[in-house]
């Protein structure tokens, strides 16, 4: 802390704070977009990303700081899965008429094409959705996807191929 006379002390950022702040500035929006594609809800996606950065801050320094973005992506995916699991359990206890619908704000925010893709994406299995988002939204290679999700590279490749075929068929059905 640096004191400026009688004024309140000004915190001096340490290496951890600076490193995580830089990652936050550079990757927050992309990680929120990734989470939105999985959980389909912006506020929940922002919470997931915030929790991922908090966890990164707590664990800093990592064994290999160059893998911080990979750590964040993995944490965002894992926490997004947790959100979906909690929702699934909560839906068991809500009568169908009470289930929350898409907000007017998010509906207005999405263009018609994006909404169609998002609806189709929601209907594919979770693992397939994760692979498709990582491959075609983040443009990760099949090897990177395999490492991130803990599956084989050929599994990532075949899941992406099957998922793209399913998504294409569902989009054609909607039109």
TrEMBL record:
Pfam families the UniProt entry points to: Sigma70_r2, Sigma70_r4_2
Keywords: DNA-binding, Sigma factor, Transcription, Transcription regulation
Biological process, per Gene Ontology: DNA-templated transcription initiation
Entries under CDD domains matching the protein: Sigma70_r4
DNA-binding as UniProt keyword: yes
InterPro entries linked to this entry: RNA_pol_sigma-70-like, RNA_pol_sigma-70_dom, RNA_pol_sigma70_r2, RNA_pol_sigma70_r4_t2, RNA_pol_sigma_r2, RNA_pol_sigma_r3/r4-like, WH-like_DNA-bd_sf
GO molecular function terms noted in the UniProt entry: DNA binding; sigma factor activity
Domain RNA polymerase sigma factor 70 region 4 type: 115-165
Domain RNA polymerase sigma-70 region: 23-88
Similarity comment: family membership: Belongs to the sigma-70 factor family. ECF subfamily.
Name under which the protein is recorded: RNA polymerase sigma-70 factor (Sigma-E family)
């Amino acid at each position: 802390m640096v004191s400026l006379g009688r004024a309140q002390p000004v915190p001096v950022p340490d290496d951890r704070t600076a490193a995580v702040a830089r990652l936050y500035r550079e990757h927050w929006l992309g990680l929120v977009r990734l989470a939105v594609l999985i959980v389909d809800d912006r506020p929940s996606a922002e919470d997931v990303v915030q929790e991922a950065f908090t966890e990164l801050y707590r664990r800093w320094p990592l064994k290999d700081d160059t893998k911080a973005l990979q750590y964040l992506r993995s944490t965002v995916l894992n926490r997004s899965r947790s959100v979906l699991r909690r929702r699934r359990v909560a839906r068991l206890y809500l009568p169908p008429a009470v289930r929350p619908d898409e907000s007017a704000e998010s509906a207005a925010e999405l263009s018609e094409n994006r909404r169609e893709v998002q609806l189709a994406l929601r209907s594919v299995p979770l693992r397939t959705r994760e692979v498709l988002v990582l491959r075609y939204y983040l443009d990760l290679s099949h090897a990177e996807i395999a490492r991130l999700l803990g599956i084989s590279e050929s599994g990532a490749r075949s899941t992406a191929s099957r998922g793209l075929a399913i998504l294409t068929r569902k989009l054609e059905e909607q039109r």
